[in-house]
Amino acid sequence: MTRSWDWATGEGLLGLGSPxxxxxxxxxxxxxxxxxxxxxxxxxxxEDASPRLVRATQLPDTDQRGFALTAVGTAARLNGALTPxxxxxxxxxxxxxxxxxxxxxxxxxxxxPFRDLPPWLKRWAVYVTVRDKLEGWWLRGGGxxxxxxxxxxxxxxxxxxRNGESRTSLVKGERAGCDCSFETAG
Length: 186
Fold this sequence. Notes:
The protein has about 190 residues and is mainly alpha-helical. Helices cover about 50% and strands about 5% of the residues. It has a two-stranded antiparallel ribbon with strand order 1-2. Helix 1 runs antiparallel to helix 2 and helix 2 packs antiparallel against helix 3 (about 45-55).
């Protein structure tokens, strides 16, 4: 029994489980293919859904491409793996914070075991981990000179107050032009 899908609004397409129906809609140039790709990620084996997800990430409509990348992240969540073609789609979209694929990359890093990631994504995972740790240390900081350890700031990052202005320095004491005393880590 074939279900009639509402391709104009996308309603009900998350239940799509037939790759053949998705292919037919793609050939007809239907509107909500990215939404339907999420349905394929939910309801089809990864091997069947993967070629359709790759095609969906190349749609001309930015919103539908975003939904297709959401489908890639969903596939990573549900299967704990991606196909080499899907890894290439993520690589082409770019893993950075401003990328359209940022959530799909984050889902992949969260739900696919590190040992199963391709080398470029392993390097990205290490970079993101280090960046986030340094950013966390930076953002937890506060207070004036010498209060870095007390304020929770990384011990090598110090805020200096001079003439009513605040500036942050990565060097200590006199070299930074500050005459404040520093607390040492005990």
